[in-house]
């Protein structure tokens, strides 16, 4: 039986926050249809100033995303010529070049490179999530393995259901390794050695283990996962969208560079924001409030608490505009 994809993303619009249920069919798997729909969704939310956050959760009652559709991986691997590590590296470089050249997908789909192209585009989608001003939250309503875990690692925040669930990278048990970014993102989340041991062993983390090692941010009862993830989405999504994007790019991309290069990324993002109309307005408001009250607003507990809720420091100028 050849691979046939019927996965979909079901989107619930709640204004500034979208709730997206990942429906991978009876087994809850992640296939090409979901990858393509995710790509389009990221384009949509990144270009819409009214959308500030996205919460992903699983349509399966006990799984966030089970893992990749294995037949999809197997068939694309079988369709490609057998190459060694150096040959595979060359293929990856060629595919990266075709992506930049925007070679039409129907053309690429008829070549042995199509599997590599699909993987490259999925990586590009995840990277766009990392560079976006939208906050992406994984509401792990159940277990996630392989590409399901990698999808969660690509999000900005992760809330996991407590119970008999698990999350991890079992690919080595199928004679492969993580291909959706697991060796890189899990390493950045929990550290090199713990990531290596988990990937070599193939044993997943329990919710308590994932929380303890920093792979997820919170563990809550299953019935509360989407609610808590939405609360976090609303909180973080209230921050200025352009500043969220700048901070994410600095951390995700600059944070993995040598220090001097990472500082260059931060400087560039900082200068862009400090010169922006939004940044100037908020800083002028802060200065005016300080001069009027004789105290720094962020050293007033009530003002700080309001800022954390609203997403920006309230001041006299902004109050007068309301």
Protein described:
The chain is α/β, with parallel strands linked by helices. The protein is 53% helix and 13% strand. It is built from 15 helices and nine strands. A six-stranded mixed beta sheet has the order 1-2-3-5-7-9, sandwiched between helices. It has a three-stranded parallel beta sheet with strand order 4-6-8. β1 and β2 form a beta hairpin. The longest helix has 18 residues. The protein is globular. The termini are far apart.
Can you tag this structure with a few keywords?
single chain, 322 residues, alpha/beta, 6-stranded mixed beta sheet, 3-stranded parallel beta sheet, 53% helix, globular
User: How many runs of DSSP E, i.e. beta strands?
Assistant: 9
**Helicity level:** 40-55%
What string, H for helix and E for strand, traces the elements in order? Answer: EEHEEHHHHEEHEEHHHEHHHHHH
Cα gyration radius (Å): 21 Å
* Amino-to-carboxy terminus distance: 63 Å
Please report the number of helical segments. Answer: 15
Give the CA-based shape.
globular
Structural class: alpha/beta
Question: Mean of residue pLDDT?
Answer: 89
Kindly report the spatial arrangement of strands forming the biggest sheet: 1-2-3-5-7-9
- Biggest sheet record: 6 strands, mixed
Low-confidence stretches: none
Assess the beta-strand content as a share of residues. 5-15%
């Amino acid at each position: 039986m050849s691979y046939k994809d019927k996965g979909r993303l079901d989107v619930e619009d709640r204004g500034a926050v979208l709730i997206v249920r990942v429906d991978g069919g009876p087994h809850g798997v992640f296939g090409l249809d979901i990858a393509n729909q995710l790509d389009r969704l990221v384009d949509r939310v990144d270009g819409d100033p009214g959308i500030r956050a996205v919460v992903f959760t699983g349509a399966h009652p006990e799984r966030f995303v089970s893992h990749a559709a294995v037949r999809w991986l197997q068939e694309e691997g079988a369709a490609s010529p057998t190459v060694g590590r150096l040959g595979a590296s060359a293929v990856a470089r060629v595919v990266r070049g075709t992506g930049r050249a925007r070679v039409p997908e129907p053309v690429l789909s008829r070549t042995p490179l199509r599997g590599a192209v699909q993987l490259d585009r999925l990586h590009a989608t995840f990277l766009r999530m990392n560079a976006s001003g939208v906050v992406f939250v994984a509401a792990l309503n159940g277990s996630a393995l392989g590409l399901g875990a990698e999808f969660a690692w690509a999000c900005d925040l992760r809330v996991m259901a407590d119970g008999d669930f698990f999350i991890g990278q079992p690919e080595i048990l199928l004679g492969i390794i993580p291909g959706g970014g697991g060796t890189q993102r899990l390493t950045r989340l929990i550290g090199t050695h713990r990531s290596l041991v988990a990937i070599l062993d193939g044993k997943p983390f329990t919710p308590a283990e994932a929380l303890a090692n920093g792979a997820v941010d919170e563990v809550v009862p299953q019935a509360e996962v989407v609610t808590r993830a939405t609360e976090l989405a609303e909180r973080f999504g209230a921050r200025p969208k352009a500043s969220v994007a700048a901070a994410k790019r600095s951390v995700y991309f600059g944070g993995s560079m040598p220090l001097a290069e990472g500082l260059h990324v931060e400087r560039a993002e900082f200068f862009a924001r400090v010169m922006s109309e939004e940044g100037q307005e908020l800083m002028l408001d802060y200065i005016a409030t300080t001069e009027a009250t004789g105290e720094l607003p962020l050293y007033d507990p009530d003002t700080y608490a309001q800022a954390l809720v609203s997403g920006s420091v309230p001041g006299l100028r902004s109050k007068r505009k309301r």
